[in-house]
Write a structure and sequence with these properties.
Layout (H helix, E strand, L loop, with lengths): L2 E5 L2 E4 L4 E8 L7 E7 L5 E7 L6 E3 L7 E6 L4 E6 L8 E8 L6 H4 L7 E2 L3 E6 L1
Parallel strand pairs: 2-11
Antiparallel strand pairs: 1-3, 3-8, 4-5, 4-9, 5-6, 7-8, 9-10, 9-11
Length: about 130
């Protein structure tokens, strides 16, 4: 069993940066691949970024490539999403998710049904 708690959301202006953190409880954190998803009002929960259990493999949705960076600290049981050059369209609730598979391909990494555990989410609002 893994429990996930996100933090770091807030209200920022377009062009600003923000860092989200996801703290995980439970054992064998490094065996879980982790991901960030986001959900805007009235829309589906969409994939944002993925990192494998070792941290060697990452994937991003096209619209955040080059602006967002996902990283993990397995000693601290923590995953971080650094977001730069934020845009109003980045506004959403951001969720951390854990996958019992240590790594997967880029297609499955984007499928929210493949994740076993979810956090409660943290709101990110970007004003124009």
């Amino acid at each position: 069993q893994v429990q996930l708690v996100e933090s770091g959301g807030g209200l920022v202006q377009a062009g600003d940066s923000l860092s989200l953190s996801c703290a995980a409880s439970g054992r064998a954190f490094s065996t879980y691949a982790m991901a960030w998803f986001r959900q805007a009002p009235g829309k589906d929960r969409d994939f944002v970024a993925y990192i494998s259990g070792t941290g060697y493999t990452t994937y991003y949705r096209n619209s955040v490539q080059g602006r967002f960076t996902v990283s993990r600290d397995n000693a601290e049981n923590r995953v971080t999403l650094n977001m730069n050059s934020l845009k109003p369209e980045d506004t959403a609730v951001y969720y951390c998710a854990a996958d019992r598979r240590t790594s997967t391909n880029s297609v499955r990494a984007q499928n929210r049904d493949d994740y076993d555990y979810w956090g409660q989410g943290t709101q990110v609002t970007v004003s124009s």
